[in-house]
């Protein structure tokens, strides 16, 4: 009987999605093709060419005579003892891998199958232990880990909203591309070995589980097998101490496309080649990401990261379009701005007071004509609209991501996934001072008393506060630098109009360098602190580490911008009564106000950070990879062809560093484009350009430059979503205060509708006359709403009331509409709820049928 006939007789020809015969044939063909070793991919199998290599662990043996001449007898003896201990641990570990009965009695005399290869480089022996997980072990762990198995296959439609819009308009979709070997979609149910015949593909147990699932199961075994005492377990601890030097799943083969590859040969490409050709290359920057292929190869955790990054990048497109329109509105109306015209045409009318106390002369307001016009680009009525728009954009983006996330998690069978009993971290197990019975499993395991953790947590908080104070000290130093550097520039009549710009931009560059340096130092410190706090599970460790680093980086990146936006120029005083800072006169907002300085500061820090990070991601992996290959002696000369097995090729790649740095970069960027967008409408444009580059850099890095990461399961982006929600709420408050107190929008609005219906005379109205006791020998003007005696005018107090009222109104309206959006946009689409219920019904029916009529099923087969 053919495979098609077997499947049809077992599951029927209809399943609620239409005929599935063709899909099932495709499933069989795909599995057969995937498991057929050919060319250089044969080294992803054992030497028999049949058993798949699911994992590789590597240890290094060194010659005893090596470097003995340069070491003392005691050093040689100590090293010999350590190596002897490592050999004992490795031997025990490998024996326990071969027989898992000690871990699970039901697996007695069953275990992983191992095969060893030795590579000698520079008198060092590298032992590659190839691991194959046989069916009895796979099936046991798949049931224990609640894997889901396919019941019925169907093609999932790949149409998204942009494709649907373009189809409606009868426009070609250049972003769409047919990627070969698309993974199938299935109706699934929890895997039960007793109901194996219910599932698709159960006739061939060698291909029943995907490579991703096989690697996940193998890793689960590797991290739990004992190598010493009962608490001494797991490959992670052996890697930390150096008994093993590497543990990694293999890539599916080379990532380069075969030479002279024909269209008909695409079906024989391995998944790594497909991902590189249709995703990782720079030429694919405008194409949809093949999300199902990414998840199939790297697992759900990395798949969800790229799905979120792609979704976020797509949502930046409307934000960028509106930002560009707002910017060009400013460009178009700049030449008709009445206050700027009055300043440019004022000549010697407005003689301004000196900008410093020693040696600075009087200056004319007309000398900053150009900068007043430039400031209008970032401070006009359109920026107020854009701040409101971006507040709604941020909340709506997060709401629709929740819907997208749920759909994706359901499609990838990880909806509701949660580690029921996550194992202790290796460092925790090694350093915990006591043992205690796990209330869930009943197994004795390492334990660290919660009371002992409290002082460590408080110490960690104290360190964070100290680091924040250090950041503030550097901010103060940058402020002093800006004040000091501005004084000699102001004294030069030629450079005076550019004094604030030169001082602000050079200070922003210095600040960026300090920020990047402090960020690297603190990440290392935060990692050590979080380790010292002794968190039991990896999830707890990562959550505490993320919060520590984000809180610090928030202060680190945003504090200087917050100072310019909310504090600079607010506590200057007035002529004769200026406030001082370390003996120096406080900074004023010149050349168009603080909003343009805020835009400069934001632009330099945000764009500079992106450029530095992208350069690091492009260059550093290549340098690390070259050094690693050079040390191994595996670099090849130009034109030289070296055929090496896949396990050696992958060993030369750099180790994957996870997704923490990627998420942190994007979340900080999200803060830049939402919290301070009122000052810089082009921020989303630069974020969009960066993200297009970021996707390609990350894709290329994962596919071609790093070892294959372990396929981890998850259903969402974790605590990062909580941080994004907090930033979205903070953005509303921040933009309200920026418009109210930093922008000139409300003063102009109040002048326009309270005194006259246009802005004629506003410049003169906004400039106060220096009081008689100022100490100046000539009459001069300064920017403030004060009377000739230096007292605040009635307009000042009316304006303050308007500003406070605007903040209250802005926040209530925006938060109210955002709450309405939250209510109107359900987290789970109605169509998905129906689909989930339908699939549960089909799974229940299929599993019930196999229980009720097993004999009939055998006869039909």
Automatic annotation (TrEMBL):
Residues 294-839 form the Anoctamin transmembrane domain. InterPro entries: Anoct_dimer, Anoctamin, Anoctamin_TM. It is found in: Cell membrane; Membrane. Keywords: Cell membrane, Glycoprotein, Membrane, Transmembrane, Transmembrane helix. This is Anoctamin. It is a multi-pass membrane protein. Belongs to the anoctamin family.
């Amino acid at each position: 009987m053919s495979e098609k006939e077997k499947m049809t007789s077992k599951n029927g020809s209809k399943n609620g999605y239409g005929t599935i015969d063709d899909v099932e044939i495709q499933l069989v063909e795909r599995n057969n093709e995937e498991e057929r070793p050919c060319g250089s991919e044969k080294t992803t199998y054992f030497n028999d060419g049949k058993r798949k290599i699911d994992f590789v662990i590597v240890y290094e043996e060194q010659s005893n005579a090596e470097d003995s001449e340069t070491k003392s007898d005691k050093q040689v003896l100590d090293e010999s003892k350590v190596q002897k201990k490592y050999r004992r641990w490795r031997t025990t570990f490998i024996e326990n891998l071969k027989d898992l009965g000690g871990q699970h009695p039901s697996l007695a005399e069953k275990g992983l199958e191992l095969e060893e290869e030795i590579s000698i480089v520079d008198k060092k022996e590298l032992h590659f232990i190839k691991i194959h997980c046989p069916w009895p072990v796979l099936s046991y762990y798949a049931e224990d880990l609640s894997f889901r198995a396919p019941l019925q296959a169907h093609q999932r439609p790949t149409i998204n909203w942009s494709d649907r819009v373009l189809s409606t308009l009868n426009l070609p979709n250049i972003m769409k591309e047919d990627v070969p070997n698309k993974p199938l979609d299935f109706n699934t149910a929890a895997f039960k070995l007793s109901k194996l015949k219910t599932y698709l593909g159960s006739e061939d147990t060698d291909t029943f589980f995907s490579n991703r699932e096989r690697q996940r199961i193998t890793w689960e075994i590797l991290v739990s097998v004992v190598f010493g005492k009962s608490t001494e377990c797991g490959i992670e601890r052996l890697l930390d101490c150096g008994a093993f030097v590497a543990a990694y799943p293999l890539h599916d083969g080379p990532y380069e496309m075969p030479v002279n590859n024909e269209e008909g040969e695409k079906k024989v490409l391995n998944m790594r080649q497909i991902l590189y050709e249709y995703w990782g290359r720079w030429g694919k920057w405008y194409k949809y990401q093949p999300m199902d292929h990414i998840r199939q190869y790297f697992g759900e955790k990395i798949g969800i990261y790229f799905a979120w990054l792609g979704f976020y990048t797509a949502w930046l497109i409307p934000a960028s379009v509106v930002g560009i329109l707002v910017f060009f509105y400013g460009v178009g109306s700049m030449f008709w701005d009445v206050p700027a015209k009055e300043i440019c045409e004022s000549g010697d009318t407005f003689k301004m007071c000196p900008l410093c106390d020693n040696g600075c002369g009087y200056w004319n307001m007309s000398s900053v004509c150009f900068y007043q016009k430039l400031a209008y680009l970032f401070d006009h009525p359109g920026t107020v609209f854009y701040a409101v728009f971006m507040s709604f954009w941020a909340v709506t983006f997060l709401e629709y991501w929740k819907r997208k996330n749920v759909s994706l998690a359901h499609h990838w069978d990880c909806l509701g996934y949660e580690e029921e009993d996550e194992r202790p971290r290796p460092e925790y197990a090694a350093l915990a001072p006591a043992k205690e019975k796990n209330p869930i499993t009943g197994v004795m395991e390492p334990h660290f008393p919660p009371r002992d953790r409290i002082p460590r947590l408080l110490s960690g908080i104290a360190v964070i506060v100290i680091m924040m104070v250090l950041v503030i000290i550097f901010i103060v130093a940058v402020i002093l630098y800006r004040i000091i550097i501005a004084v000699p520039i102001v004294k030069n009549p030629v450079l005076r109009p550019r004094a604030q710009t030169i001082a602000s931009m050079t200070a922003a560059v210095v600040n960026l360098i300090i920020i990047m340096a402090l960020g690297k130092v603190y990440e290392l410190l935060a990692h050590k602190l979080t380790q010292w706090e002794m968190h039991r599970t990896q999830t707890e460790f990562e959550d505490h580490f993320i919060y520590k680093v984000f809180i610090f980086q928030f202060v680190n990146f945003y504090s200087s911008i917050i100072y310019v936006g909310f504090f600079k120029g607010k506590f200057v005083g007035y002529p004769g009564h200026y406030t001082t800072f370390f003996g120096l006169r406080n900074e004023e907002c010149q050349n168009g106000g603080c909003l343009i300085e805020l835009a400069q500061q934001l632009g330099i820090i945000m764009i500079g950070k992106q450029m530095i990070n992208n350069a690091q991601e492009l260059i550093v992996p290549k340098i690390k990879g070259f050094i690693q290959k050079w040390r191994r002696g595996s670099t090849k000369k130009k034109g030289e062809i070296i055929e090496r097995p896949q396990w050696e090729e992958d060993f030369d790649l750099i180790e994957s560093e996870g997704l923490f740095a990627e998420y942190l970069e994007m979340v900080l960027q999200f803060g830049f484009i939402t919290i301070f967008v009122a000052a810089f409408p082009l921020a989303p444009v630069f974020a969009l350009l960066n993200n297009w580059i970021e996707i390609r850099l990350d894709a290329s890095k994962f596919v071609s430059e790093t070892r294959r990461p372990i396929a981890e399961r998850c259903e969402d982006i974790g605590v990062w979503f909580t941080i994004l929600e907090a930033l979205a709420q903070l953005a509303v408050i921040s933009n309200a205060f920026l418009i109210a107190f930093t922008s000139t929008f409300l003063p102009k609005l109040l002048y326009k509708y309270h005194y006259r219906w246009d802005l004629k005379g506003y410049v003169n109205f906004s400039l106060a006359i220096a009081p008689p006791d100022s100490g100046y020998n000539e009459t001069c003007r300064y920017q403030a709403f004060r009377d000739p005696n230096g007292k605040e005018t009635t307009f000042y107090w009316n304006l303050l009331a308007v500003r406070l009222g605007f903040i209250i109104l802005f926040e209530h309206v925006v938060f109210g509409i955002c709450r309405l959006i939250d209510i109107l946009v359900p987290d789970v689409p109605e169509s998905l709820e129906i689909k989930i219920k339908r699939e549960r019904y089909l799974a229940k029916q299929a599993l019930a049928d196999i229980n009720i009529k097993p004999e009939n099923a055998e006869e039909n087969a």
